[in-house]
Amino acid sequence: MAPPTVHDSGADTAPGVIVIHSCTTLGATLVVRLRGEIDHFSATPLRTLLASAADDGYTGLVLDTSRVTFADSGFLAILDWWPRHGRSLRLANRSRAVNRLLHAAAAATRQPARPPLPTPRRNLVHRPLSPPLPGAMG
């Protein structure tokens, strides 16, 4: 028995609006031009399009983000999801908003350089050694 079909129009009441300005194909590569804001709530139409493209066998994706004015972790999640299972991804014409997001994400994943821990200084007291016990020397 097939799972129930769920219709998701991609509409939401969030203020962010992403528009898929155009979508073309070049062999097994999908070329998508985006416009507007991409956030967790407004990314549904793009997620739906890409899931369908993956199901249809597309293995390449080029995203033109030159007209993207805002992007958050919702967009990062899409960028993380697509390359799974050997699919390729290329971002073309990155907008300032997309560059800012990618730089922030890269900085957050880098381990901060930790200064070396200071060597604890102990109060070193010179104590004379006790004389060896009789019979302890061989």
Defining key terms:
138 residues; alpha/beta; four-stranded mixed beta sheet; 3 helices; elongated; disordered N terminus
Write the layout of secondary structure elements.
Blueprint: E1 18-26, E2 29-38, H1 44-55, E3 60-71, H2 73-81, E4 88-92, H3 96-109
Report on the architecture of this protein.
With 138 residues, the chain is an alpha/beta fold. The chain is 25% helix and 26% strand. It contains three helices and four strands; from the N terminus they run ββαβαβα. The chain has a four-stranded mixed sheet, sandwiched between helices. Strand 3, helix 2 and strand 4 form a beta-alpha-beta unit. It is elongated. It starts with 17 loop residues before the first strand and ends in a 29-residue tail after the last helix.
Summarize the structure.
The chain is of the alpha/beta class and 138 residues long. The protein has three helices and four strands; from the N terminus they run ββαβαβα. The protein has helices at 44-55, 73-81, 96-109; strands spanning 18-26, 29-38, 60-71, 88-92.
Helix proportion: 25-40%
Outline, from the CA principal axes? elongated
Structural class call reads alpha/beta
| Number of contiguous helices | 3
Distance between the termini: 87 Å
The number of distinct β-strands equals 4
Radius of gyration based on Cα positions: 29 Å
Strand arrangement in the largest pleated sheet: 1-2-3-4
Q: Give the SSE order as H and E letters.
A: EEHEHEH
Uncertain residue ranges: 2-14
* Mean pLDDT level: 81
Question: Biggest β-sheet: count, sense, barrel?
Answer: 4 strands, mixed
% residues in beta strands: 25-35%
